[in-house]
Amino acid sequence: MSELIDGREIARAVTADTAEMVAQLKARGIAPALAVVLVGDDPASDVYVRRKISECGKAGIRSIERRLPAECDEQSLLTLIDALNEDRSVHGILVQLPLPAGIDSMKILDRISPEKDVDGFHPVNVGRLSTGTGGLVPCTPLGIMLLLDTVIDDYRGLNVVVVGKSNIVGKPVAMLLLEREATVTVTHIETRNLPDIARGADVIVAAAGAPHLVRGYWVKPGAIVIDVGITRVVEHDGTTRLVGDCATHELGHARAVTPVPGGVGPMTIACLLKNTAIAAERQA
Ligand code: GUN
Question: What is the pTM of this model?
């Protein structure tokens, strides 16, 4: 049987380290604070934002929630970001995505001060990541690396297949893996022969948002599989269930896999707290 990589337990350890870092910052008179901005009332975004805010407390981070109505104009969101950028008591700013239609996400992300961009989505941080020159690293890719670090010592020359080319996961995790000198293939919806490509992988990072896309026959024996997908599906009896991008029940021959839920998800939030502490430290 494959090993299950316990994201909840590893996330707790990351958050304990962050709490330690926060305590040291507080001893120096710096109280790390994260502002979370939610526009509109998308139920999934609402759940994520609540969770992010409630987790802040576990690391001793102050959280500030700012909500704007779905029909707000772009300018009022920009004005809010300007105020948070100016506020020296705020160290991290997160604008929950997706934003309502009519608001230009890139323009909004561009406005967040790169030093406070705890999501790592600002072009300056994207550029720093792609050149390996520091900056704030997106939370999910950072969390994926911390999970992989528990089962991989040396990435050099490993064949890694990333399924999905999103700006939030696929592209940045590919950059982090390249920094560690893995051989990285990024695949996407137009990729041909995806199962054949995946079968060559020592590590698969599945981040397509397509339930059970990665099947057992895609995975070579002994491979490591990170499942980033989390889709709510409705069963025949009307109940709902969270499903990942991998058919995990077919992956008994893998070396290690992450469960859904309880794998990558908790790591994303733990890394958000970690990034907030790092941002506070750098602003000190
Ligand atoms: N929506 C889905 N994932 C994310 C994320 O990592 N950060 C933000 N801000 N919004 C998201």
Answer: 0.97
